[in-house]
Design brief:
By secondary structure, the chain is α/β, with parallel strands linked by helices. It contains nine helices and ten strands. The strands form two sheets. It has a five-stranded parallel sheet, with helices on both faces. The chain has a five-stranded mixed sheet with strand order 6-7-10-8-9, sandwiched between helices. The radius of gyration is 20 Å and the shape is elongated.
């Protein structure tokens, strides 16, 4: 029997595990001892929260190297799977391979003939889209906007045009310490009649979801308004 690669979603923030992790996932994590992870520290914290009785010293955590093209110990992982050992994959937060590394590992497993099993769990992209009221039939996730000011304005112009032309919801993220700057740029640069949704700290007790037209955002924002250093996702729609 060949081993399987299980894609295990991770918490989006500090919240009760029952809110984001089905019982089946917990049962699976409790029996796995081999993992490919984006961050060993995050993986240990997640495993400890899910399975407090599990001995973390018995785990083999193989990290993906962000600084070397998301490389990982491929031969070792393939050998384990070939020997019938099931392996879990955990990214930093949310669902593996969605706005997170992991696609290289998954692609290698498919090429080698190993089964890949995606598990149910939190995705900030999907959760924010569900809560926005924008089109869920047509949407695009762009990741981070360009850092360069001119390129940033051009990207926002193109995004606004897509919303107007085909009703496609536009989704972005930003480093949490730049949330306030991005929000004010969106409110300043986007057309007044388009709408902006900002989803913050999803699945946690501090969760906030705000949707208004750009015109309404301009009236609502004040100098004291801040979501600094809080995980957020931004959506533009009609």
């Amino acid at each position: 029997m060949k081993g399987k690669l299980y894609l295990i979603p991770v918490s989006l923030g500090e919240s009760n595990t029952s809110r984001y992790e089905p019982a089946l996932n917990v049962e699976l994590v409790s029996r796995l001892s081999h993992f490919v992870v984006e961050s060993a520290r995050t993986a240990r914290r997640c495993i400890r929260a899910l399975c407090p009785e599990k001995d973390l010293d018995d785990l083999l955590l193989l990290e993906v190297d962000k600084h070397k093209g998301y490389s990982y110990p491929r031969e070792r992982v393939m050998t384990l799977l070939g020997e019938g050992v099931d392996v879990g994959f955990m990214s930093e937060a949310g669902c593996p391979c969605v706005a997170d590394p992991g696609s290289i590992v998954v692609a290698d497993c498919h090429r080698a003939g190993f089964d890949v099993v995606p598990l149910v769990g939190p995705s900030s992209i999907i959760l924010s889209l569900m809560a926005s009221g924008f089109s869920g039939q047509s949407f695009a996730f762009h990741g981070y906007l360009p850092f360069d000011g001119k390129e940033r304005r051009q990207a926002l112009g193109e995004a606004a045009a897509r919303v107007r032309r085909v009703g496609e919801t536009q989704i972005f993220i930003e480093a949490p310490y730049r949330n306030d700057r991005l929000l004010r740029e969106l409110v300043e640069l986007l057309p007044s009649d388009l709408s902006l949704c900002m989803a913050v700290d999803l699945t946690t007790d501090q969760e906030e979801i705000h949707r208004m037209t750009i015109s309404e955002w301009r009236k609502a924002l004040s100098r004291e308004t801040s979501w600094h250093k809080r995980p957020a996702i931004f959506l533009i729609g009609q």
